[in-house]
């Protein structure tokens, strides 16, 4: 894409600057090398650069042209270098008659060589000499480089003669690529022409296969480093999959293999159609616009579209908010659609390369079988002849790639647009690039008739529930556009981003990945992560409803209403079309409507509270639904992104499952509270046989009923030993640290005299050490002690190291409780917010609920996560004269949900409406960091 010369006017007036530079030299007696002259030259060029950049940024805001901006920046840089070069030759290192060796050419290489430059990019230069370096050449190069450095530019440079350029290009692919894109800026033109001629003749000729191999391997390595998905919600616009570097790679290969100088030459060569070329330019222009805005906004060469800049970029690009979608989400959806188009262009280009010059496939994944591709490019013969697909004569397989016999295969029977993917899944084949092209051209055939067709829907459900590779097949259906056409509600979430830190992928990618995770669980590949779901999936009566619900669970994202309720409504419409019975449809819609319930209850409710289990069981109602919901919940969390699902969440889900299972199977009705308490006591006594009888009886009487009901046998024994050790030493304060590798947490138990601010002090100590509390259980004894157990996120892989870390946390808690170390009086919210979190606005919300527990008032506090938040909340609760029975901490990206089970100081629920309102106000202020807790003022009513 060339920019008219008139579009470059007004950026820098080279003629006027040339005259001013001449005047500077004349004022200094014609000597431009003096320090005074150099200072004046630098000042002049620096001002010209600043003015030029301001013009470029202004025009970017006016016309939005990304490529125009990049070329304007390149033009500005070219002129600054030319002016510096000419001034050096004319006024600093003048040579009346230069020898043949005293010639010099300055070329732009890399992206700058293509005539595009981002505002914060490096300036890559190649200084080319005819022979060896001369003192004159060395001085000129040094003058130019120091001037550019003093202008504040980051310059990548090399000085070589032509022989060195040719020799190094043969052995170094990076240098070869740089010279491939070399563009003369100034200096000796014959020297540049000689370099190109020798480069083409001595380096390029006959080496296409080596170059393609290296570039594709380089691309795959880059993708692995940046993240293999192009749908990451904080993408790298330069290096990420679907970014500018992918387009660069295509053009490098095209330029090297097809010997074209411009992208438009690919149309003449028949590599791209005119529409595909236009798409290439459109994608490149959009990515350049985003990149240039990003550099101007941040003032540095930032390439990652992080959360803290996405909204501002969206505003700069003119995106507005629509119902159900924020401006930033609309912008990012456009970005991901462009990244998808870049992937399409990659496949189209490689198919053309193959068809015109190879006549053999590149393998299952381009670049992953490069060796075989290169051998074929060098003249190898086909390994497998084409053969028709058994039972489907309209299709054939060649080298494990599926293709159509005729271009009318989809017109003849539009259902083939679904059938082809079922065939590919069943036979483990990839789609031939030409077949992919044909599918794209035939998308309009997927109309309401195909959507209603029973065979098409049967085939789709077969793909969705396949035991082969459903994730891969669904992703290919999505990339070709078939999935969004066949299921229009899915099409609405394609490339949709949710502007939060919790979800790592776009909605469509998350849904497809969740099917892949479900498939892994079914195959038994996820036993270590969550063995219960692996066991339960084998016992399901109907696996189809699970896979359909998984595919649809987030399909209503981006709508003004709750996506769970809207999704259930969509399921009731789609499931009959998919061939599900009324009962199956009801189960699917129920799963979608309640797909967040199990995660919410497990992570933010007290699972030892009987009412929590009763209420959840009333929602679930059957063991089959409980199994389905458990498996769906595990797969959903794991598909959110790497590291989101952990052992602690898995343990909470298992606990909720087993407790609910007891209820649904009648376990709670058969055993009374008193029987459960008595059973727990007797089990502990069996393990305390070496204790004196009186000591055992005395210990049993130290705990209230609630303790025996919610503490597992292993912890009962550990706590008993802790109490005995503390009593023996006569100390008032004791600790126990237990790392849990599988759950990914470390348990720290604190035995201390009971005090309303005990948990607050523990939270403060953890805040100081940087430990992240994920759960807390508080028990009190009949003789005035508190037994507080906190669970902190594990940081170290080795148990011994993690135990020492836990001991350090415990030691700081000890010092804080004894007054040796003062805890901070107030956490500074603005200093503790991470930059990524600052991009989000989460309104503080406080719920006071007396119906979730029979014994406690439950406070659910949500807001923007920050360091020290739990410390502030627990201190606030203590100033409200409330006792905390248990605390449950859940973090969803930038949003935190902390739930506290509290009573007043007499052990009663808080029923007074006025007091509840004060609690809401104070806690909301604490979330926002606006509540002054330094005085620890007491508020009661």
TrEMBL record:
UniProt protein name: Bifunctional uridylyltransferase/uridylyl-removing enzyme
UniProt-listed HAMAP family: PII_uridylyl_transf
GO biological process: regulation of nitrogen utilization
Gene name linked to the record: glnD
Alphabetical UniProt keywords: Hydrolase, Magnesium, Multifunctional enzyme, Nucleotidyltransferase, Repeat, Transferase
Regulation: Uridylyltransferase (UTase) activity is inhibited by glutamine, while glutamine activates uridylyl-removing (UR) activity.
Phylogenetic lineage: Bacteria, Pseudomonadati, Pseudomonadota, Alphaproteobacteria, Hyphomicrobiales
Coiled-coil residue windows: none
Gene Ontology MF terms: [protein-PII] uridylyltransferase activity; phosphoric diester hydrolase activity
Cofactor(s) essential for the protein: Mg(2+)
Domain notes: Has four distinct domains: an N-terminal nucleotidyltransferase (NT) domain responsible for UTase activity, a central HD domain that encodes UR activity, and two C-terminal ACT domains that seem to have a role in glutamine sensing.
InterPro entries, alphabetized: ACT-like_dom_sf, ACT_dom, HD/PDEase_dom, HD_domain, NT_sf, PII_UdlTrfase/GS_AdlTrfase, Polymerase_NTP_transf_dom, UTase/UR
Reactions it catalyzes: [protein-PII]-uridylyl-L-tyrosine + H2O = [protein-PII]-L-tyrosine + UMP + H(+); [protein-PII]-L-tyrosine + UTP = [protein-PII]-uridylyl-L-tyrosine + diphosphate
Stretch list, region Uridylyltransferase: 1-382
EC number: 2.7.7.59, 3.1.4.-
Protein family: Belongs to the GlnD family.
Keyword Signal applies: no
């Amino acid at each position: 894409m060339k920019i008219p010369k008139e579009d470059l006017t007004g950026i820098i007036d080279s003629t006027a600057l040339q005259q001013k530079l001449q005047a500077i030299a004349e004022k200094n007696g014609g000597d431009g090398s003096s320090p005074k002259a150099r200072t004046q030259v630098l000042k002049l060029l620096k001002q010209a650069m600043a003015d030029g950049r301001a013009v470029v940024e202004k025009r970017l805001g006016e016309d939005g042209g990304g490529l125009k901006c990049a070329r304007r920046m390149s033009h500005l840089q070219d002129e600054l270098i030319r002016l510096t070069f000419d001034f050096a030759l004319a006024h600093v290192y003048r040579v009346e008659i230069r020898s043949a060796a005293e010639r010099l050419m300055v070329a732009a290489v890399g992206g700058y060589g293509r005539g595009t430059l981002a505002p914060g990019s490096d300036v890559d230069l190649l200084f080319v000499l005819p022979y060896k370096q001369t003192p004159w050449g060395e001085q000129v190069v040094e003058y130019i480089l120091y001037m550019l450095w003093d202008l504040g530019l980051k310059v990548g440079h090399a000085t070589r003669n032509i022989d060195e350029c040719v020799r190094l290009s043969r052995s170094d692919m990076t240098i070869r690529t740089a010279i491939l894109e070399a563009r003369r800026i100034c200096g000796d033109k014959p020297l540049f022409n000689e370099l190109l001629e020798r480069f083409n003749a001595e380096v390029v000729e006959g080496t296409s296969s080596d170059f393609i191999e290296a570039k594709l391997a380089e691309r795959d390595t880059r993708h692995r480093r940046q993240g293999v998905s192009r749908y990451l919600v904080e993408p790298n616009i330069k290096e990420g999959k679907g970014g500018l570097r992918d387009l660069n790679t295509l053009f490098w290969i095209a330029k090297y293999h097809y010997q074209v100088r411009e992208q438009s030459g690919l149309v003449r060569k028949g590599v791209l159609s005119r529409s595909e070329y236009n798409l290439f330019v459109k994608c490149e222009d959009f990515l350049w616009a985003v990149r240039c805005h990003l550099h101007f906004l941040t003032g540095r060469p930032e390439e990652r579209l992080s959360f803290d800049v996405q909204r501002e970029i969206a505003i700069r690009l003119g995106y507005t908010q629509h119902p159900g979608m924020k401006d930033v989400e609309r912008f990012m959806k456009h970005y991901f659609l462009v990244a998808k188009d870049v992937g399409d262009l990659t496949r189209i280009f490689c198919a053309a390369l193959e068809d015109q010059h190879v006549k053999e496939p590149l393998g299952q994944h381009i670049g992953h079988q490069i060796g075989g591709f290169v051998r074929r490019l060098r003249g190898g013969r086909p390994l497998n002849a084409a053969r028709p697909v058994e039972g489907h004569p309209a299709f054939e397989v060649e080298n494990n790639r599926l293709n159509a016999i005729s271009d009318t295969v989809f017109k003849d029977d539009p259902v083939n647009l679904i059938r082809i993917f079922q065939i590919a899944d069943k036979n483990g084949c990839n789609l031939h690039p030409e077949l992919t092209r044909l599918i794209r051209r035939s998308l309009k055939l997927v109309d309401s008739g195909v959507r209603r067709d029973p065979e098409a829907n049967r085939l789709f459900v077969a793909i969705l529930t396949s035991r082969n590779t459903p994730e891969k097949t669904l992703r290919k259906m999505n990339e070709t556009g078939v999935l969004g056409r066949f299921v229009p509600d899915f099409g609405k979430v394609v490339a949709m981003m949710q502007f939060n830190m919790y979800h790592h992928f776009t909605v469509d990618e998350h849904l497809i990945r969740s099917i892949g995770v479900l498939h892994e669980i079914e195959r038994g590949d996820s036993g270590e992560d969550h063995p219960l779901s692996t066991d339960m999936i084998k016992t399901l009566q109907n696996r189809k409803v699970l896979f359909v619900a998984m595919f649809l669970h987030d399909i209503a994202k981006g709508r003004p209403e709750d996506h769970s309720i809207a999704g259930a409504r969509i399921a009731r419409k789609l499931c009959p079309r998919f061939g599900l019975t009324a009962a199956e449809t009801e189960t699917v819609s129920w799963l979608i409507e309640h797909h967040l319930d199990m995660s919410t209850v497990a992570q933010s409710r007290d699972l030892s509270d009987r009412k929590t289990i009763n209420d959840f069981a009333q929602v679930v109602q059957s063991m089959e639904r409980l199994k389905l919901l458990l498996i769906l919940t595990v797969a959903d969390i794991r598909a959110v992104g790497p590291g989101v699902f952990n052992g602690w969440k898995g343990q909470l889900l298992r606990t909720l499952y087993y407790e609910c299972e007891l209820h649904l199977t009648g376990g709670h009705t058969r055993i009374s509270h008193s029987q459960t308490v008595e059973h727990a006591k007797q089990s502990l006594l069996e393990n305390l046989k070496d204790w004196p009888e009186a000591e055992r009886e005395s210990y049993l009487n130290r705990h209230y009923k609630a303790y025996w009901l919610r503490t597992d046998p292993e912890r009962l024994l550990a706590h008993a030993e802790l109490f005995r050790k503390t009593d023996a030493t006569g100390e008032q304060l004791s600790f126990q640290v237990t790392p849990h590798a599988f759950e990914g947490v470390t348990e720290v138990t604190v035995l201390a005299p009971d005090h309303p601010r005990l948990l607050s002090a523990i939270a403060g100590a953890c805040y100081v050490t940087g430990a992240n509390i994920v759960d807390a259980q508080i028990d009190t004894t009949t003789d005035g002690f508190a037994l507080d157990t906190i669970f902190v996120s594990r940081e170290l892989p080795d148990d011994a190291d993690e135990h020492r870390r836990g001991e350090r946390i415990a030691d700081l808690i000890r010092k804080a409780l004894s007054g040796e170390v003062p805890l901070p009086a107030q956490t500074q919210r603005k200093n503790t917010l991470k930059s990524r979190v600052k991009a989000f606005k989460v309104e503080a919300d406080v719920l006071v609920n007396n119906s979730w527990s029979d014994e406690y008032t439950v406070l659910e506090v949500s807001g923007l996560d920050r360091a020290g938040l739990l410390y502030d909340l627990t201190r606030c609760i203590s100033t409200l004269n409330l006792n905390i029975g248990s605390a449950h901490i859940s973090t969803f990206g930038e949003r935190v949900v902390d739930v506290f089970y509290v009573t007043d100081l007499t052990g009663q629920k808080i029923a007074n409406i006025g007091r509840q309102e004060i609690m809401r106000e104070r806690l909301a202020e604490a979330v926002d960091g606006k509540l002054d807790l330094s005085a620890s003022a007491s508020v009661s009513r």
